[in-house]
Amino acid sequence: MKKSTCITTIAFAFIMLLSTNVDAQKFSKLDKSPMDAAAFPTSYKNTNKLIKIVYSRPQLKGRALSELAPNGKVWRLGANEAAELTFYKDMKLGNTPVKAGTYTFYAIPGDKEWTVIISKDLNVWGSYFYKEANDVARLAVPVTSGEPLEAFSIAFNKADGGVINMHLGWGTTRVAVPFTK
Description:
Elements: H1 2-19, E1 35-40, E2 51-56, H2 65-68, E3 83-87, E4 91-93, E5 96-98, E6 101-108, E7 113-119, E8 135-158, E9 164-180
Antiparallel strand pairs: 1-2, 2-3, 3-6, 4-5, 4-9, 6-7, 7-8, 8-9
């Protein structure tokens, strides 16, 4: 009996020693620029959305906005993958009609204005593969300033005349992108 207990104990210890190196699942570390989404209407109770954007939220962490989103260069509007903009109904960016669907949303930052771009490209990482030939709409919008924001942020609100503004904010830079039905 003692011999069988000793063998069982040794076998159990051996199995435990081997199983400590087996991982059921390896998870990657948390993303430093987590994904977020903003939609209009903004209430989660309203499921009849007109617009939704999915983007990553980079942090300034002591860096200048011009370092992360340089003036005059196409920027993916966030971090990692380019921001994806979905229209659930036909909309207009400025005076340019845009059909319902999903698009990539870019910007070209500047000191006094940003050019925002809706592109038909999808599943694009960064702005490395941006092609102007795939633009659906472009609009120059003025830059204003506000209280400092550490994380890049997007929010929507309804303005006069049925305009839906997509507000982009990072650091003290603010840009309002107007959409209409």
